[in-house]
Amino acid sequence: MKLTGITLLLLFIFGRCSESTILSEGLSSTDTLTIRTGTSFGMCVGYCVKDYVFSGTRVDLAMLNRSRTQTSSKACQTTLSQETWQSLKTLANPVAFSKQPERLGCPDCADGGAEYIELQAGDQKHRVTFEYGQTIPGFELLVDALRTQRKAFDECP
Fold first, then answer.
1. Domain of life, per the record (predicted)?
2. d(CA 111, CA 141)
């Protein structure tokens, strides 16, 4: 009877340990980190949607123009310094970020615009969409750093 209890206890402990280890490794591995961020405005003229993908030192920008007469897009890329990429990786905490709600406030209500940040580590990803100009509690430094990068690379040539 004692042996069965000890066996069950050990299975429970090792099972819980394995589950949490897998979860945290899958979400916290910044070696395979991809950061997506962008802005959108529902009622605007011109390129109203901008999506950025930060993957290592490479940054891809896609711009979408949703005018009434046509839909057109532009895409371009640039690079970051290794130091900038390391700084962004340090600010991104995928485990803590995954605990944030998917939506904060009322993004793009009354044409106020929306921003989003999505962190992907391996095949695990989590996106938070929030009101343009606002922030994500606990991730203010990441939001500011990504805004700085977006401002530096605001348009495709």
1. Bacteria
2. 25
User: 127 Cβ partners below 8 Å, 6+ apart?
Assistant: 36, 102, 116, 117, 118
Q: In order of start, what are the domains of the chain with their CATH numbers?
A: 30-152 (3.30.1560)
List phi, psi (to 5°) of 114: -140, 150
- What whole-number percentage of the chain has pLDDT above 90? 66
Which residue is associated with the tokens 């009877």?
A: 1
Query: Considering the entire predicted model, what is its pTM?
Result: 0.79
| pLDDT tens digits, one per residue of 27-37 | 444 568 999 99
Find the largest Cα–Cα distance for the chain: 77
Contact at 8 Å (CB) between 20 and 28? Answer: no
